[in-house]
Write a structure and sequence with these properties.
The chain has 233 residues and is an alpha+beta fold. Helix content is 18%, strand content 47%. The strands form four sheets. A six-stranded antiparallel beta sheet has the order 5-6-3-10-13-8, with no helix packed on it.
Length: 233
């Protein structure tokens, strides 16, 4: 089985050791360096229609990279956004849901399925999280996020956890999730006004038992910040 390791302190990258015949999937343009013997091809994640829908509603690309070892080789992968990398071990009875941007790499025993998010109208309002991916199988899944990644474990006894959708990366598929606007008990008009004036839009309500991974930085907010600097220049 492919061996995954994270190296680098402030700006980590992923090192994958492959034996002949093994393959891994990774986000596009993530190959940093590799030994001779790695073949790189493009594949569609979750099928053609799901890939097209995801590329139209998020900044994810249409294709993934497939890296296949023609002989024992090593490959180094770097994420497209500056931030942390987390290696997750999946088992047959335990998968993860992934939000936009979260997927970085996986071995070929992991199956990635793209699905429409729940409460689609609210997600369209925010312009974020229209699609989620579901990762399952018995192997390694690698996620990345802007800034640091924090693991949070919740339980049904502790109550629901509410996370801004822009910070949410991945969560156990044993956890129930629901998208809602901030201040859900207010009128729809009040919620929309609050979302526009405070820049707080859709949040995810997570309940049950399992692990959740969040990023310390919101990618949409970061993109808006960069755009504002570019406009000033």
């Amino acid at each position: 089985m492919a061996i995954f390791n994270v190296d680098g302190a402030k700006e980590p990258f992923l090192i994958v050791q492959l034996e002949r015949g093994e393959k891994v999937y990774a986000e596009p343009d993530s190959m940093l360096a590799m030994q001779d013997g790695i073949e790189i091809t493009g594949t569609l994640q979750g099928g053609l229609l799901a890939s097209i829908g995801r590329s139209l509603t998020s900044s994810e690309g249409l294709f993934q990279q497939t890296l296949t070892a023609k002989k024992d080789s090593l490959v180094m992968l770097a994420p497209s956004i500056p931030g942390d990398i987390k290696i997750l071990k999946l088992e047959r009875n335990r998968g993860y849901f992934l939000n936009d941007y979260a997927f970085f790499a996986a071995d070929d025993s992991i199956e990635i399925e793209t699905r429409l998010n729940r409460n689609i109208g609210r997600m369209l309002f925010s312009g974020d999280g229209v699609f989620v991916s579901h990762a399952s199988g018995d192997g390694v899944l690698v996620i990345n996020g802007l800034g640091s990644i924090e693991e949070i474990e919740i339980s049904s006894e502790g109550g629901d956890l509410i996370v801004d959708n822009g910070h949410l990366l991945a969560w156990d598929d044993t956890i129930s999730y629901d998208a809602e606007l901030v201040n859900k008990d207010s009128s729809i008009f009040s919620r929309v006004v609050h979302s526009v004036t405070s820049a707080e839009g859709v949040v995810m309500r997570l309940s049950g038992n399992g692990k959740i991974y969040i990023a310390s930085r919101n990618l949409s907010t970061f993109e808006s910040f960069i755009s504002s600097i570019v406009r000033k220049d």
